[in-house]
Amino acid sequence: MRQVPYTKLADLCSAVFAARGLSTADARYVGEIVTLTEAFGIKTHGVKVVLAVAGQVGEKIDPSAQPKVVAESGATATIDGQGVLGQLAMRLAKELAVAKAREHGAAMVGVRKTSWIGAVGPFLIDIAEAGLLATATAQSSACLDCAPVGGIDATFSTNPMALAFPTGGDPVVADFSTACYSMGKIGQLIRAGKKAPEPVFLDKQGALTDDPNVTDEEGSVLLTGGRNFGHKGYALSLWCEALTALSGGNANNPDLPQTQSFSLTVIDPEAFAGSEYFLAEMKRFVARVKASRPRPGCDPVRLPGERGFAALREAKDSGVPLDDKIVEQLNELASANKVGVTL
């Protein structure tokens, strides 16, 4: 394990994307957001995005393409991602949604047809730090990861959702799959030779199992709530698909090229009960939540995102913890792209 300086990691990631053809500003934005994601502790969707996607820029992904607003009203907008990196489409979505929410009280932006966006939660941090509430959903058009409740054949990707809101201190930030595991987490289990703590997978005959390897053998992962309460994740996953169709993207359809679509909703509390009241009330309430008596092994009671902010501060002070293999792969990627930054 290595502790890599935060700014150096961001510099390398940015330089790789610039070498692949992105503009300096676009490359810097992507490099910064994947570094933030990694430092926040979402290691399945942090610098692994660089390793997975950078090689596609200049090949499958046109580095000169830009997301385009194709429909707009007072409080809404629709963006065609035109196959760009999802991070760049989300940057435009945030700019529009925040400005429209400030003007109208709430705003929603739908985005269709981008490449992999990575984790959606980190994009919401600065929105919440600016005193606004935000929620986002994402979907992959052709991934067959999850079966509907009562079914065997997969018809959903793991359809992530995220939310964030201010509290007067660190905002609450939650980022989660609508399945029991994201595919990134499943990959971690497989590489570690581990099984899930309970049966949350279906094999291709529909039998429950704790073995993640069935997902590589026409099996699937259960939706959030698992075998007894999966109807909850099922409804949320359907909602992600509906919002995708709203933007003009493709709800899950493996017969079409794989793209990603997402939605972003931003709310300004000033337009409702007022920002001052909202912050005071949330500050009071989260203090009450954290004062709940902790269960054994759960001291202290934490809020969503609390571990992430602690990890982020530690990473900025002492470096981002990276496995030696990941460091080696990033250095190899930098060398292959003639980038003069190494970790």
UniProtKB/TrEMBL annotation:
Pfam families, A to Z: Ldh_2
Gene3D superfamilies the UniProt entry points to: 1.10.1530.10, Hypothetical oxidoreductase yiak, domain 2
InterPro entries: Mal/L-sulf/L-lact_DH-like_ah (IPR043144), Mal/L-sulf/L-lact_DH-like_NADP (IPR043143), Mal/L-sulfo/L-lacto_DH-like_sf (IPR036111), Malate/L-lactate_DH-like (IPR003767)
GO molecular function terms noted in the UniProt entry: oxidoreductase activity
UniProt entry tagged with the keyword Oxidoreductase: yes
UniProt keyword terms in alphabetical order: Oxidoreductase
Similarity comment text for this entry: Belongs to the LDH2/MDH2 oxidoreductase family.
UniProt protein name: Uncharacterized protein
